[in-house]
Design brief:
By secondary structure, the chain is of the alpha/beta class. It folds into 2 domains: 2-248 and 464-476, Rossmann fold (3-Layer(aba) Sandwich); 271-457, Rossmann fold, CATH 3.40.50. It is 36% helix and 20% strand. The protein is built from 18 helices and 18 strands. The structure holds adenosine-5'-diphosphate and alpha-D-glucopyranose.
């Protein structure tokens, strides 16, 4: 089947979060199943530099605007990748979405409208001699693509839109609708309008033939006011075509048996390897070394520093966590105030709290392999990948029972035979401290702890099942032109 994937990021060319991992992992899995899946991304300078394979340049024009599609291969895969090279829009280094000060680029609407416009034309076969059976767009940055394709006569490619995070809706002032030349008849509450503003994400939610999100629980949650970000009514209305499919992970890149970032690799729970990794991590992030046999667990966190992830709950719970003998290793970047609060915590508890502000893949791997417990007290979590990495690394996760966390982590005390981690009873600091204390009691019993770790490490987190689920969905989605 011919599938055009379009997203604003794909590891290792551009990545700020899980979307980048999924755009890589899922296209790779589909290609390995012999489907002709191709990927369209913006040509950020790092992406151009990282593209592999035989590089070709297609000089094209669309809506009187010239641009180039740089063709190559996504590293580590056989996925043909097109980079949309339009230098005034995408030739910017650093975070793809924001300026150095963390503000959204002022021309984001133009940039991502253009990406969506090119995706729709490419899928329809108007730019190159290749036409898609399915256009699969991801998150608000590419959500106008299903809208633009849907306006074409049948047969046209089927459109699938995946919500990775409903909290990012791509909202812009009303005049943007006209400025982008979007059709006036789409300016309705049933169309692209959202309370007097333009919402890019509605291009996917209101118009795609099928909608998916990245876990069954999040698919249910977003149909309620508490998680729906004002779009729960529309999602309830479209519930017949809304599906939850849990993400897989790249089990080659995230493999504790062969991970170049670890001080010691391991295939099964191995206290000696963990001690070596814990020591390497402690040294790297500025923590005291182990102070005797099982003095207290080393807690880890990796992620974007935003309200969603509940880092403020970790900060608020710190006095209790440290009183219980724990140390904390934390890696992340994001909102300035949270970054500063974490730096302050590291200064306040030297040797007990180690913080690295920034983006560092090697350190993320070492935290997974060197900590005893991995913390994810998220307020909501569409899927979450870090808990899957930590399960695979034998580092039981402590999570809020929401979204993909609820679907992948089983509480040890609720189900003693299948439990692989720990659920917080609520997303607050007291619940976090209590749950870490409960987990620590299990950690202090080495034989039982090994069984918990083994259950996590033995789980199947590969893309196999999810890739098959997406293929079934593609096949069953009308609009398919059969190519
Ligand atoms: P989200 O997509 O909401 O950020 P996920 O858990 O789905 O959350 O995915 C986050 C991905 O980004 C993981 O691969 C994680 O390791 C990575 N990541 C996040 N922040 C950092 C960081 N500061 N350094 C290295 N990797 C990071
Ligand atoms: C989003 C979500 C995260 C999910 C990722 C990949 O960024 O916040 O939960 O794992 O997308 O789907």
């Amino acid at each position: 089947m011919k599938i055009l994937f379009t997203a604003s990021e794909a590891w290792p060319l551009v990545k700020t979060g899980g979307l980048g991992d999924v755009a890589h992992g899922l296209t790779h899995a589909l290609r390995e199943r012999r489907h002709d899946v191709r990927l369209l991304l913006p040509a950020h300078p790092d992406a151009v530099a990282g593209l592999e394979g035989r590089i070709r340049r297609h000089a094209l024009t669309l809506d009187q605007r010239p641009f180039t599609l740089i063709e190559g291969r996504l590293p580590g895969t056989r996925v043909t990748t097109w980079l949309l090279d339009d230098p005034p829009l995408f030739a910017r280094a650093g975070n793809p979405y924001t300026t150095e000060d963390g503000d959204p680029w002022p021309d984001n609407a133009r940039r991502y409208h253009r990406l969506s416009r090119v995706a729709a034309a490419l899928a329809a076969g108007e730019l190159l001699p290749w036409q898609a059976a399915v256009l699969h767009a991801h998150d608000w940055q590419t959500a106008l693509a299903p809208f633009l394709l849907q306006r074409r006569p049948v047969p046209r490619p089927a459109t699938v839109f995946t919500i990775h995070n409903l909290a990012y809706r791509g909202l812009f002032p009303a005049e943007t609708h006209t400025r982008l030349g979007l059709p006036p008849e789409a300016w309705t509450p049933e169309g692209l309008e959202f309370h007097g503003r333009l919402a890019f994400i509605k291009g996917g939610l209101a118009y795609a033939d099928a909608i998916t999100t990245v876990s069954p629980t999040y698919a249910r949650e977003i149909q309620t006011p508490a998680f729906g970000c004002g779009l729960d009514g529309l999602l309830r209305h479209r519930s017949g075509v809304l599906h939850g499919i849990v993400n897989g992970i790249d089990t080659t890149v995230w493999n504790p048996a062969a991970d170049p970032h670890l001080a010691a690799c391991y295939r099964k729970p191995d206290p000696a390897a963990r001690a070596a990794n814990r020591a390497a991590l402690a040294q790297r992030i500025g923590l005291d070394g182990d102070t005797g046999e099982r003095s207290g667990p080393l807690l880890g966190f990796v992620g974007r520093l935003v309200e969603q992830k509940g880092v403020d709950l970790i900060l608020a719970a710190l006095p209790r966590l440290l009183a219980g003998g724990a140390r904390l290793a934390l890696l992340g970047s994001g909102e300035r105030e949270l970054e500063e609060a974490l730096r302050q915590a590291a200064r306040h508890y030297p040797g007990r709290v180690g913080v690295h502000i920034g983006y560092d893949e090697g350190l993320a791997h070492l935290i997974e392999g060197g900590c005893d417990l991995f913390l994810m007290p998220s307020r909501f979590e569409p899927c979450g990948l870090n808990q899957l990495y930590s399960l695979r690394y034998g580092t039981p996760p402590v999570v809020t029972a929401t979204g993909g966390l609820a679907d992948t982590v089983i509480d040890v005390d609720t189900d003693p035979t299948a439990g692989n981690g720990f659920h917080l009873p609520a997303a607050n600091a007291g619940a976090l401290a209590t749950t870490v204390e409960r987990a620590t009691a299990h950690w202090r019993r080495p034989a039982a702890w090994k069984r918990i770790q083994t259950r996590g490490m033995d789980g199947d987190y590969s893309w196999d099942a999810s890739a098959e689920a997406y293929l079934r969905l593609y096949r069953n989605t009308p609009g398919n032109n059969g190519s």
